[in-house]
Amino acid sequence: MRMYDLIERKKHGGRLSRGELHDMIRGFVDGEIPDYQMSAMLMAIYFQGMDEEETLGLTLEMAASGDMVDLSGIEGIKVDKHSTGGVGDKTTLVIGPLAASLGVKVAKMSGKGLGHTGGTIDKLESIPGLCTAVSRQRFFEIVNETGIAVIGQSGNMVPADKKLYALRDVTATVDSIPLIASSIMSKKIAAGSDGIVLDVKTGSGAFMKSLEDSVALAKEMVAIGTGAGRRCCALITDMDVPLGSAIGNSLEVREAVETLKGRGPGDLTEVCLQLCSHMLYMAGKGDLDSCYALARDAMADGRGLKTLAAMVKAQGGDETYILDPDRFPKAPYVREVKADRDGRVTHIDTAGCGIASAMLGAGRQKKEDVIDYSAGICLHKKYGEEVRKGDLLAVLYASREELLDGASQKLMDAYTIGDGDVEAKKLVYGQVTGDGVEMF
Ligand code: URA
Asked: Which residue among 59, 318, 358, 432 is the one 20 to 30 A from 177 at the CA level?
């Protein structure tokens, strides 16, 4: 194989065979194919795309480029869940324990936040003592004992994605559907679960801003999942406005706990119940309606919360923070952001809210940045709500006073207060399964 020939072919819209994809990924991971040739290939894929079979081949080759996790040491059906990322997205902390409390095994590897989006690992690490870097053996033991463990990606998993993502990041080739789909699904396939429920976000705070692109990404990922022999489905959910009210790590854990007590914000609760019912359905717990009822009951009677506390304890964390979230340290500096006119919240720039939260110290701009777990934002007015001049829109929390001015301006700019009615937004726009796309 000559990499030059493959680039030339892809540049003109040709296909790459499975054997060629194998050699290309192997050669790139081993350092035989230089970054400049892979960059040219990524740009060719960006413009010419890949067909379904090619994307599946690329994904499987990427997944096999490092360790593949064998979850057979965990009894029962293992179902993973993945969100394409957003602002205020604490669904894993709710639906993982909820599904586990109903007998699904959740052996989950999650990521850290970067840029305007948060990451589950950072949220979990805001719980004192909790360790997200446990050995493989301990990971299996915790899942067998409590039904769920959530850890960081360990060892040498999918090195091809680490190298490719770093290159995409600096060559303006991140926003390509086959490249995003193969990047996400290679990690999910290597993580070993029997089933994968995908939460594909759409809107201003999501990777995919348009519904059309979100559906296309969901279709591509579901085709890969089923092509790889896994049960796989996707829900397309809204990320045009932040999910729930809390943005920032310990603030989001508190909101997840409230949701597991049945007292969470309506939008977060509904998205969690729908995603959870798909996890249960995938594990054979009944039809979708009865799975929804099971999830709702486990929320109402506190089984999900008990499972979260058990997981936190098993991972070395102090579970009293789950039982009494008032124990989380409060940021010493607080700023209220108020409406500067009467009207209605006609838009919230979700990425802007995420950036404001990161400016307060809750997120990182570079991988090395240190997170302030107590920093963040609580939104008091959401999309469509009426406001009067002087009403509280949001409260900002920070550990350094000088961070408040810039962040509060950013948050103020993220709110649009206008006149007249707003269009109702759906929480879940549709679902994609192996049988096709169904829009709601
Ligand atoms: N998340 C990933 O893991 N990869 C992408 O390409 C985009 C989002």
From this structure: 358
Among 87, 90, 92, 88, smallest CA distance to 116 is for 87
**Rounded to whole angstroms, how far apart are CA atoms 380 and 224?**
40
Query: How far is ligand 1, taken at its centre, from the CA of residue 180, in Å?
Result: 5
Other Cβ atoms within 10 Å of 94 Cβ, number: 29
Secondary structure, 3-state, 327-338? HCCCCCEEEEEE
Pocket, ligand 1, Cβ cutoff 6 A? 174, 180, 183-184, 207
Active site residue 187: yes
* 155 Rama class: left (phi>0) / alpha (psi -120 to 50) / beta: left
The per-residue pLDDT for range 17-62, each reduced to its tens digit, is 999 999 999 999 999 999 999 999 999 999 999 999 999 999 999 9
218 exposed, middle or buried (CB, 10 Å; 0-12, 13-18, 19+)? Answer: buried
Identified catalytic residue from 89, 122, 161, 267:
161
Task: Determine the pLDDT at residue 153.
Answer: 82
pLDDT at 169 over 90: no
User: For residue 211, how far is its CA from the centre of ligand 1 (angstroms)?
Assistant: 18
Residues 411 and 169: their CA atoms lie apart, in Å, by 26
